[in-house]
Amino acid sequence: MSFTQIDQAPPRVNRSELAVPGSNPRMLEKAAGSDADVVFYDLEDAVAPNEKDQARANVVAALNDLDFGEKTVSVRVNGLDTPHMYRDVIDVIEQGGERLDLIMFPKIGTAADVYAVDMLVTQVETAVGRQKRLGFELIIESALGLANADAIAGASPRNESLHFGVADYAASIKASTTQIGGPNPLYAVLTDPDEAGAREVHWGDMWHYAMSRIVVAARSNGLRPVDGPFGDFSDDDGYRYQANRGKVLGFEGKWAIHPKQIPLANEVFSPSEQELAKARAILVAMENAKAAGEGAVALDGKLIDLASIRQAEAMVAVAEKLGI
Ligand code: GLV
Ligand code: MG
After folding, report:
1. What pTM, to 2 d.p., does this model score?
2. Which residues line ligand 1 (CB under 6 A)?
3. b/e per residue, 142-151, with b = 16+ CB within 10 A?
4. What's the gap in Å between 81 CA and the centre of ligand 2?
5. Which of 41, 138, 168 has the most ligand 1 atoms within 8 A of CB, as the residue to mutate?
6. Would the pLDDT of 1 be above 80?
7. How far apart are CA 203 and CA 129, in angstroms?
8. Is 263:270 a contact under the CB 8 Å cutoff?
9. What is the pLDDT of residue 290?
10. Confidence of residue 75 (pLDDT cuts 50, 70, 90)
11. Quick one: CATH architecture of 16-270?
């Protein structure tokens, strides 16, 4: 282990993160009673320019009036390059009350962007005497943001999570895409011919580099990596596959752009029965080895290393939080 200790963001369950347009009061209300772990009310790209003021007022009212239960509540404000962001931040903090947990900032490109919004949030928070410190969710969704992901992730103690905004990212790097967050059949390789001369097309994951980059930037700064949208909400299997490959890479959750996607994200990002049984068995083996004064821990004839024990502890802690 390095002598450098990584401070971890406050722990939150973040399997599903529901995006809700701030312009639609009915959807704001439904989201509060949903099964999403995190709800973010959107003032940015889901809201038309002429609806920005009304959406802001709707969101402020919802934050004051609705019962969110145990959920984490967030608001996505507009970008730093717009005339809307300062007003979003000020109104939401001044008038939204204490229930808000996080603010989500889109299209973050540099560490200086985070510094600037931290200054604004800190001023407003102090001025209104807020009791609970607001955390930041930062969307990495441009070439600039990805290039600066490490510095961005470490730029404020308010940072809690990095999100992969695949739609804007694709536009920023001028990628050829067929649908939001899905694969493109042209991103593939052709196998060599087998004995009969047959060849196969193997699809690749065109988002792999960006996702891996975000996981490393997030984890090396103690933040949660969260995968962004999958556009085709009628394709459950497609969503599951995209979510699973994020989970395998180390992501903690995925956006739901439609309530239908909430149970899919919750299912994929909860530890499975099998994974949990193994994690619990590892912890029992560790306790037994300790009681017997043995340094090495073994399970089913295989040595268990310290990294596996830590992973098992983390998984059991999450399961306890989820009540599984
Ligand atoms: C999310 O904001 C995205 O651009 O994918
Ligand atoms: Mg975006």
Report:
1. 0.94
2. 106, 139, 141, 165-168, 228-229
3. bebbbebbee
4. 14
5. 168
6. no
7. 53
8. no
9. 86
10. very high
11. Alpha-Beta Barrel (3.20)
pLDDT in tens, 286-317: 898 888 888 788 888 888 888 888 889 988 98
Look at ligand 1, atom 3, and give the residue with the nearest C-alpha.
165
Using CA atoms, how far apart are residues 144 and 113, in angstroms rounded to an integer?
A: 12
Q: Which two tokens stand for residue 17?
A: 């993160």
The domain locations on the chain are 16-270, 274-322
Q: How far is C-alpha 120 from the chain's CA centre?
A: 23
Which residues have a Cβ under 8 Å from the Cβ of 97 and sit 6 or more positions away? 63, 64
CA of 50 to the centre of ligand 1 (A): 20
Distance between CA atoms of 189 and 168, rounded to whole angstroms? 26
The pair of structure tokens assigned to 2 is: 């390095």
pLDDT in tens, 46-57: 999 999 999 999
Structure tokens at 227: 């995968």
Distance, CA of 320 to CA of 270 (rounded, Å): 11
Work out the pLDDT band at 132, boundaries 50, 70, 90: very high
